[in-house]
Every structure is written in C-alpha cells, then in structure tokens.
Write a structure and sequence with these properties.
The protein is built from eight helices and no strands. It has about 210 residues and is mainly alpha-helical.
C-alpha cells in the first residue's frame, strides 16, 4: 500500500457534508524540455490557434486527473475487496502524480495553460447534472455499497481511463514539442494499461 493510501486510512472519518461537497467536483518516465527561447510564446512552426487547441486538451487532462486523484481518498471507507482497492489506489495515485507533473511542466513551459475553459455552458450543465447523480449513488449510508458500489466505481474508472488514454495519445500526436509529446505518449500508455487492468477485473469478478 502506498504512503498516500496509508496516510489517508489513518485520518478520521470525513464529515458527510465535506465529502458531498468534494465529491460533487469528481467523477466527471520523464523528458527534459527545451529551455532555449521565449517559452511564453508558441514554438517555431506553432500558431497561437494550435497552442490554444492543445491547451484545451491539457486542461481537460489536468482537470480529470485532479478529480480522479481524490476518489480513493474520499471513498476508501466502502472498499470491501483487496483487488478492487489495489487498482483504484494505483490509478488515483498515478492521477495525483500526473496532476503534479503537469503543474511542473506548466511552470517550465508558460505557453502550456492548464486552466482553459473547455466545455460550452450547455455541456457543463449536463456534466454537473451527471456529477449530482453520481453523488447520490456514492454518498455515505444512502448510496450503493458492497458489490454494487465496487462494480459501479470500476465501470466509471474504466470510462475515465479510456478517456484519459485517448486524450493523452491525441496530444502526443499533435504536440510539436518533442519532450511534451513523449510525456503524453507515456501517459496515454499508462492509462491504456489501467483500462486493460480494470476491464480484466470487471470481467473476472462481475461478469462471469
């Protein structure tokens, strides 16, 4: 068990109000950057429009990673199976590390913006409604528990891993900076690995 998970499990029970507030925000190898030139401007051969489109992808990747990093912290009280707890902990720990990695990259490469508004208002409203529905499913006492909880959580993490995989892979393909492209390629491969692992676990435990 990781140090992060051990620390989380040593903390007192999170108040339901705080848990609900934070849950509402959820469920929705290194390379060296080129340090030459003015990094506040697009790189050679890169337009402002291209960088803006890439930053929309980085913002989505970062926002999802930041949210997923909190799932294990807030929902550990309902885990009943070691194999489910392990894969959830591994993925959430990786997402926490990825969010920190992206923040460090943004500091080194100011043209990289992690805080662009990605969704139009109508899409944001729909996703907020989905988050509220998920909150009811996972809320303490009244939400799902046991097998239903674990199956539901794994299904949602499967979709999240798939989304993160393809976002990172697309960024890797279109990113003109070789170092950033390499990092995104590795990120995509890692999420693809999580997808395969969660898929195998779902089939083995819940769909036989």
């Amino acid at each position: 068990m990781t140090q992060i998970a051990a620390f989380v499990r040593s903390r007192p029970t999170i108040p339901p109000v705080l848990l609900a507030a934070v849950l509402l925000l959820l469920l929705s190898g290194c390379a060296v950057l080129d340090r030459q030139g003015d990094k506040s401007s697009p790189a050679d051969g890169e337009t402002q429009s291209t960088r803006a489109q890439l930053n929309a992808g980085y913002s989505d990747l970062y926002s999802n990673a930041s949210g997923l990093a909190k799932v294990d912290t807030l929902l550990y009280v309902k885990f009943e199976s070691d194999d489910v707890e392990r894969v959830v902990t591994e993925m959430t720990d990786y997402c926490a590390a990825l969010a920190q990695r992206l923040e460090a990259l943004a500091a080194d490469y100011p043209a990289l913006d992690l805080h662009q508004q990605v969704d139009p208002p109508i899409i944001k409203a729909a996703r907020d409604a989905q988050k509220k529905a998920n909150l009811k499913r996972f809320a303490p006492v009244v939400g799902d528990s046991g097998t239903a909880f674990e199956r539901g959580l794994l299904i949602r993490l499967l979709g999240a891993a798939d989304q993160q995989h393809y976002m990172a892979a697309t960024l890797a393909e279109r990113e003109p900076n070789p170092a950033l492209s390499k990092i995104m390629a590795e990120t995509g491969e890692r999420f693809a690995g999580f997808y395969d692992e969660i898929d195998r676990l779902l089939k083995a435990r819940f769909y036989r």
